[in-house]
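pasting for ref
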Amino acid sequence: MSGNAQVAEHEFLIGMAGDPYYPAHLVERGRAVLRALCDRIEAERPAGLRELYVLTHAATEEFNRLGDALDEADSEIDTVAREAIGEDFAFVAAAYGFADADREELIAPREW
């Protein structure tokens, strides 16, 4: 559980949760990726945006793999999912003091 109160209270991927188009177990896997990102930020304490982007890019690669799993489940990272994921990456950055992070750079290696 996150030591950041904002993060601890936040429901990740709300735009995907409860929608039968997105299998619940895969939405939960996406939430786990975001929680793990928060844990890494708390553990590694990035000094600046460059260090933050290394962490968010690794998490984005996990979402690329999740996209493959969604495809196999006759779903996909569509517009709704892209927006939900992107918003949560921006939320995480802001919650840890990086409100000036570039939203596109946070998820630059995305394949979705």
